[in-house]
Design brief:
alpha+beta; about 30% helix; DUF4279
Length: about 140
């Protein structure tokens, strides 16, 4: 029998990902892909979610980097690199009623901090969209 243990390191972020999220009640994933000239990593058509029928029925267009070999700053850089030259389109989508956010997720230990290089923070800010931090402190 194999046993595994999970050790949480204080102040660390683990199981991280960075995702550009485009959300709208009547979202057409193909239209968003065309406007951004990018292929998403995932989409969801508007309507009830088969896994959570009572959840948010809005459509989603996602561009996600969850490469575990990278740290969270590098995951953010990958997503920002992909959309940086399309910042104006992101702002146009937001002005048209789309929810456009750059979302980061991670499991965190006590006292965890997100440290970003200044260049990364400036590039994120220049996109003109919100940065959303989603954390879990569940000790699994």
């Amino acid at each position: 029998m194999t046993t595994a243990s999970y050790e949480m390191t204080e102040r660390s972020w683990v199981d991280t990902d960075a995702t550009l999220v485009v959300r709208k009640d009547d979202l057409d994933p193909e239209a968003v892909s065309t406007r951004l000239a990018l292929a998403p990593t995932a989409t969801r058509l508007p309507g009830p979610d088969r896994w959570n029928p009572a959840g948010d029925p809005a459509g989603l267009w996602l561009l996600r980097c969850a490469d575990r070999a990278l740290g969270l700053p590098e995951q953010l850089d990958r997503v920002v690199d992909a959309v940086f030259d399309r910042a104006e389109v992101l702002r146009e989508l937001a002005a048209e009623g789309y929810d456009v956010t750059l979302s980061v997720f991670g499991r965190v230990g006590p006292g965890a901090m997100l440290e970003l290089p200044p260049e990364t923070a400036l590039r994120i800010a220049s996109l003109g969209i919100p940065l959303e931090l989603r954390v879990s402190n569940n000790e699994r």
